[in-house]
Every structure is written in structure tokens, then in C-alpha cells.
Automatic annotation (TrEMBL):
The keyword Coiled coil does not apply. The keyword Membrane does not apply. It holds the Pfam family SLT_L. This is Murein transglycosylase. Signal peptide: none annotated. Residues 501-601 form the Transglycosylase SLT domain. Belongs to the transglycosylase Slt family. Residues 419-477 form the Lytic transglycosylase superhelical linker domain.
Amino acid sequence: MSKWYQHFCTVVLCTSGLVSGIHANELSTTQAADSAIDVRQHQRDLFLDAEEALKRRQLDEYARLNQALKDYPLQPYLEADYIRLLATPEDDDRVLEFLSQHHLSPLGWQVRSVWLDKLMDGHHYEQFLRDYEHPGSTRHQCFSIYAQLATGSGDTKPVLRRVNDIWLTGESLPKDCDPVLEAWTNAGMRTTDMVWQRIALAAEGGKHTLIPYLQKMLPTPMHYLSEHYHRVRRNPSSLNELKYLTGDYPELETQIVAYGLGRLIWRDPDIALKLIDNLPAHINFSADQYLKLRQTFAVALSVKGHEQAGRWLARIDATEHTDVTLHWQLAEWLRQGAWTQIMGLVPRLPDTQRESEQWQYWFARSLEALGFVPVSKQVFERVAQQRSYYGFLAAAKLKQPLTLSRNGLELPAEQVNRVRQLPGVQRAYELRALDRNLAARREWNALLEHLPPNDQRALAVIASEWGWHDQAIYTLGLLGEYDAIAQRFPTAYMEEHQEFSNAANIDVNWALAVSRRESAFRNDARSHAGAYGLMQLLPSTANLVERRDVSVHELFNPSYNIRLGTRYLADLQRRLGNNWILATAAYNAGIYRVYDWLPAQPMEADRWIELIPYVETRNYVKNVLAYQQIYRSLRENELQPELFGELVPMQISGSQLKP
């Protein structure tokens, strides 16, 4: 690298926010810095031109631009594009050099995948086996076996045994696997048990339309089993047709029944409850099957508020509880106000569950309700040391200050500067500058996967300095750096949050907490449910708030998204008796579900939150409340638990809120 370019790197990266700690005398003039930034912008323009030239197959122009960009961080992306589009097996050396240089980069696996496809198409077996890395795609796995068979000699069974793992999937296999599946079958390795295992995978969550195809591979007397599995998958009420339980294969019939009951209890609990007590004598569940059924029945009945929920929860021993069944046991007793049962169960729980903040808090609440106030205070004091929903609740119960570290993650400047210069970091910065956020995140995740913990911490500091808040938050969480409050709870887009919260007449800390929980301040976030942007708004919700059709593009605008999100929060709060806790739940689950969850008789807010049927919404409310308290404390330099102080005496009731 030339001295001029070294100077350029120092200047442009400093002024771009990539390097900190550069002394003023290291920068010749402000004009030089501005010029360096102009050069970097010029490089970005040339990069885009080079991409376009390659797409148009203008190879001379591409080569000229590629040469001019040899020192630009994203030049490897141009080389990767060339290999994907134009490389042939004759370009072996060029490809191997690229794969060697970018082995730990996302570019490495992207290019390798396309390169392997090219070698497959040309049946270049030895090159493929040399460049293939396990596991790869399913089709690459199959071709690696095929290539080994084609180039090897002697006993083929060790190679064919690799097909076992490929076979055991509930999904269809690519056609590239047909040759090795045929060889595997001809070698006698496709057993009846292997076929049945795959039918079970297809039935229980896989592609059920695969079952008729697999059925042909079973002995004829077993066909009724796969037909019944398929029938139960499509409609678990088919279990009522006991004529299909002939007793010819009792263990396999029991497997089908256990699966079907686990689904039926959610769809039609009364039918499932009746059926489980009236099964044929040869349906004998194993200990594991019956435990899983008891756990599933207990949870499903509890979620539905079924009268039999308590009976099924009582069938689970303290040592048999999962976190989910244990929550619903707690919820059942909280609904009843059964404080004695809660107090009695806690000492019998396994250590990890007994010592959790949730159970310690409710243990203290039980002691308090039963009159053991001094002991309850001791337990509350332990819980109050935690910076969490339950810790803040316990502090509010005791009317004492919160435990809240204000620390940021600080590292030596030379370490952070060294990590800034890593090629992956440089590429991530440039990709973000080009608004290629997905590719930038891939680079970042590759760095997190391969760098040592101390350098990962430096990545978190760098992401925070860049304002790349979601990556900073994710990285700090991954590292367990929970005390780095300054970086984990940034006041991102503060001007917009303040302006629109004021306009909507809601607490700005609440809006910040919702944005933090919804997207970690990622403005281009999108969910599987179809919500978009910083505050994760559904287009239908945005249309309702704005009273016109709102485009997805508009929802990715942070300012616009915050304006609509704060208005929606304010509207929910107004419709729910000005209760921001109910509005928080409604923001996640919908207002009509919250109406359904409201008790007829007044109930303490902490109990009501614990009884929210949806685990996602329940945890969402707890998180938003904790985040809101953290933002309030950080911004107002105040550690008194005033927010949770409002929650502790609050009563939730639906008597005056029904639409």
C-alpha cells in the first residue's frame, strides 16, 4: 500500500467514524480530510460502475475499474461476482486463491457454493471433492458421495452410510440425490425402520404429502399405519376412528396416537380428554410418551383456561416440570390466589428453577400474603439486586432505589483501532454506506463467529460508535456484557422519539422502550408477521392510524415510523382506560385479545401480567416495562423505582373497558 493511500485510510476512516483516538496533528488540514472523504465516495461510485459493467459483460471496462479499486475494501465483492458469473473449471487457481483469502468471510461460502455447482455440472469429481466442505447444501452432500463412489474402489458401504443422515428428513430431497439413494437402496441399506422414521418426520411437522410416496417402500401389511399417520396429521380428530388401531403393530400405533393427542388437545380439548381415557388396551404409552402428553395437556388446557387444567398440572411432579409447565402451574395458583401451594412448591424445585428471579419473586409474594413479612422482605431484597423486571418489582415493593449500573464498555484505544482495520470491519462499513445492510450483517456475524472475545467486545464498541445499534445490542448480549448499559440502551433517534411522543402525549421512555424491544432500533427490520421498521408496524395498522394506504417504503423511514408508532400507542392507551401496561400488551397482541384477557374482578397488575396467555406477549410486556424504567432512570438521572412504584398497587379489571 502506498504512503499516500495509508494517509488516505487514516484520514477517511477517521472522518467517517471508523477510527477514533487520532491526534489533531496527524491530520494535515480540514481540507485534506474532506478531500479524503470525496475520494472514498468516488471509490463507491466506481464500485457501482464496475458492478454494472460486469453485469453487462463489458469486461474491459470491468477490468479497468477493478484495477482502480484494488485498495477499496469491497473489491473482493467484484472478484466474487466475476467468479459466480464467468469462472469455469479452468479458472481453478484464481478460485482457489479467492477461497483461501476469504475462507472466514461470507464471500467464501457464497463463492464456494456457486463454484461447487459449476464443478457438479461438469462432473469434475476430484476438484469437487477437493473443494467441498461439510456439510454444505443437501445436493452438495449427495454429489460428494456420488463423487467418492465414482472415483473410489473397494468397499462402498462406509461411503453409503453417509446417506443415512441425508435420508432422515421430513422434506423432499433434491433430484441430485437420486443416484446415491438408488445405490444406497441397492446395497440393502434402506430398511423398513429407516422408511418408518422418515414417515414419522414427514407426518410430525414435515411435508406430509411425502407420506404416500414413502408408503410404497413399506411392506404391504404396514400401509394402514402410514395412511393413518397421514390422516391424523391432516385432522387429529381422526384418532376417534378406533377401527384403524388394529393392534397389528401396537408400538407404532401408539406412536401415532401419542402424536395425534398432542395436536388434538389444542384443537378440541374435550374430545382429547375423552379419548385418552378410552383407548384400546394395546395402546401403552412409554414413560417418555406419557410424560410428554401430560406436559402438553397441562399447557394446552391452561392456555385455554379449561376447567381440567389444574387436574393435569397436578399430575406433573415437581422434578418433571419444564419451564413452560412450571409457568402455567404458577399461573393456575396465581389465578386462584393459592399462596400456600406456591410457597410449598418452591423448595422442591430443581436448583435452576428455584433460584430464578421469577420464582424467588413469587415466593416472596406468597410469604408476604401469608403473613411472613420479615422473611418475604429478605427474599425481596435478594431479587431487588437484579436489573430486571422482577428486580425492579421487588425494589418497588421495598420502596428502595433500583440497582442500575450506568457503565459503558470501555476498551484500550489501540485494541479498538486495530479491530477497526480488519478487512471484514472495513467491508461492513462500506456495505452500510451503500445501504446493503444484509450483506453488512453477514460480514459482522462472520467476524463474531471467528474473532476472540476481546475483539468481539471491540466490535460492540465500534458498532455503537457507528450508530449501528441493533448490532451493538446483539453483540453485547452474545458476550453477556449486560452491564454496558450505555451501549445496550442507546437513546437512538432521540429527537424524533421526543417530538412525536410529546405530540401524542405519551412518555418518551415508553416509546424508546418499545423501539428497543421491537427492533433494537433497526430501521429496516421486518418480521415474519409482516411488521416493518423501527417500531414494527403492520401495514394494516399504519393504514388505520394514517387513514390512507401506507407503503412499506414509508415504514422504513425512522421518523415516519416513530410518528405512527407513538400515535398508535397513544390510541391504545386511550381505549384501554389510559393504562399503559394494557396498551403495551395490546401493541403486541392486539387490543381485542387484551379485552378478552381482562379479569371480571380487580386483580393486581403483577398477577395479571403473569396470566397473559401468550408467552410472547407476556415476555414482551415485562421487557418493555423494564426497558422503560431503565430509560427513565438513565435519562432523568433518577434511580427511584417510580415507574414500578405505579405498577405495584395497580389493579387490572375489565368491568369498565369492554367495547
